[in-house]
Every structure is written in C-alpha cells, then in structure tokens.
Amino acid sequence: MIDIADLPAVNATLNATSAVFLVAGYAMIRRKRVVAHVTCMIAALIVSAAFLVSYLTYHAHFGHKPFPGQGLARPVYIGILITHTLLAAVTALVLAPVTVVRAARQRFDRHKVIARWTLPIWLYVSITGVIIYLMLYH
C-alpha cells in the first residue's frame, strides 16, 4: 500500500507517464496509426485524471509545501510553478475537453487546429510537473 506521504513521487511518475503517452500519441498520428493515437491519448487523459486525484488527496492531507531553495533557484521555481499552474488549469478546463469533444464528434479539421495548441501546452505541464517535484523534494 502506498502511504499518502509518498504521493508526490507518484504524482511525478504520473506526470512523466502522461508526457510519454502524449509523445507516443503524436508519433502515432503522424504515422497515420489512428487507433494507436486514440489509445495513447485516452491513456494520457486517464493518467492525468489519476494525477489530479492523487494531487488533491496529498494536498488535502498535507497542505502546501514551501520551496526549500534559496537564491536564483527561488525565482526560477516560482516562474515554473506559476506558468505550470496557469497552463494546467487552462489545459484541464478548456483545451483538453474541447480537443476530445472535437475528436469524438469526428470534427477532425477543428480537432487538429486546437490539438496543435493542446499538445505542447499539455506536454509543458506534464514535464514541469516533474521539474517542480524534483525542485521541491530533491
């Protein structure tokens, strides 16, 4: 059984896994492997949803963890954290749902237009999530 105190490591792993599925999904659609693309993107959604549940669970029990670093590391961390948080909210609340709905409705012309924004932003959020974990806990 995983202890709640271990959830930050789980969260970083889920973020990294999401990034892997996103890159794989992109590679699959570039190769016209639509079923593999859909599978990867659904997996990225599921992993990201699991991250959100895990993240909220951890913070409900332990609250906010202050950044332990000093000097230049502090403004770098704050910059990454602010952009990560804002873009995560935009991705979760707007970009990902609209992208999925357009694909589900088979509006692939419109899906492709928004996916060109969703993918790099979602990747940034996933990767910076791992960076934030490393900066806070290691």
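[next item in queue]
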Amino acid sequence: MCGRYAVVSKIEEIQKAFRAEIGKGVVFKPQANIGAGKQGLIITQENKSEIRNSTFGFTPAWADKPKYVLNARAEGDHNKDNSFFFSGSKGILEKPFFRIPIRRKRCLVIADAFYEGPERGGLSFPHCVFLSTGRMPFAFAGVYDEWENSSTQQTMHSFAIVTTAAPPGVLQQIGHPRCPLILSKQQEELWLDPHAHLADITSILQPVVDLELNAYPVSTDIKSIQAEGSDLLKPTGDALLPETSFILHQQIELFGMGESRAKKRRENEGPTLFD
C-alpha cells in the first residue's frame, strides 16, 4: 500500500507542472508526512485547471460513516500474490467502493515522494522513495468522492491512491509488494479525460515496467502521523541506487520546505547575540 507521502514543492512549481491554478480557499503548505485524514492536493475530472484540497482516505458517497480507505488496488480482490506478471481482470472496475469513481471521479494526487517499508515491518524500516529522473512534482492516479454527514450536513471530499503490483527494482529490494500508480504526463491527460473510453483507462492500470525509482532509509519518526518537518526526509543511510544519491533531500531541504540553510543553522545552534 501507499499510506504516507510528501508534497514539498513550492506552489508555483506545482501550478506550472500541472498547468493548473490553486483553488479559491485552498490551504497549502509543504508537508513531509501526509497520511490518513490529512489534506492533500488533487486535480479532478470536474475541473482540470484547479488544484484543490481533499482528505487522504476515501469514503464513497453512499457510505454510512467515514471509511478512510487509502488505496484502491487496480486488480481489486484478484492477484492475491501481488505478481508483477498478473494478466487477469482489473477488479477495481467492479468493486462496489470504486466502480463509479474509476469511471467518473478520477483525479491526480500531487506528490514529490512516498514512504514504504517491507511488507512485514512496514514503517519500522521506512524508506523515502522518489523518481530518480528528478521529476518533482509528479502525480499518482487517484479516485475521489464526496460524502455528506447526515448529522451535520457537512461534506467531506476524500481520495484514494490507485496501486499496482510493484515492478522489479527498488520496491522489491525494500521488500514491499505494491506500488502507487505513477502517471506519465501523457497518462495524466487521459486519466482526467471525462470522455476517455474505459478500455483506455484500463490500459493504464498496469505496473510500470520502466519506472525509475530510487530510495533511501529515513528515521522511524515518520511512523507518527503527527510528525512534520523536512528532517523526516533526511537520509539515515545510503541510497539503494547510489548514482542518484541524496538529490531529493538536498532539493527539499534547501528549496521545497522554505527552510533555508541559514535558518536551519540558527535553529541547531540556538539563540545568538544577534537574535
């Protein structure tokens, strides 16, 4: 599953990357630890030119209470072994939770990196996973919906991230069998197209063979949903593919989170005579 991810690019970079504007009333700040119940940034089929807030953790419109489902398996209840070579039907198309959203309520989930650990152990052995091509930000394939609380008449906007079996490479080295579906720029257009044929959408729901990922270990502080700050992205060991090393962390630490080197140094050193 993909239960934690980070969005640390500046809003200007996000708007440029997705050719969309931040929506009216949208609250945005760089976040290194987005998990269940937290607000993420999405772009929906309804308005491809607007970036909006939404709660990470999907609840369908017909639910009797919030469900907070984080991931939507492309294979649905099939492919129990998480085989990369699975060629059966895409169960998400028929699963009650997602059969309407996958057809009418698809979204882009904006991200810069995500966290995974081994299938057994999870975030007790966390790694920060990112695109080794340096592409930041990028988009996960997502589905969304609106749920109304019958007691308060308040509407909750929520989303889930679509996942596939993990391709050979970094995630298998970590020991994690699933991978969020990261879209190419061409696929982003198709994913948001309300007139796209279902067969074309189904063709996207495949593990990405040539997905260029790298990862490095990070602190177990990421396990706490309350934890925040760029230190969560700081490497605690070597990258799995050394050639791309710690480019991601350097970019985020210096530019993404708005934490300048001088500011970080002052915080680490404590107050001075000039403070």
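[queue empty]
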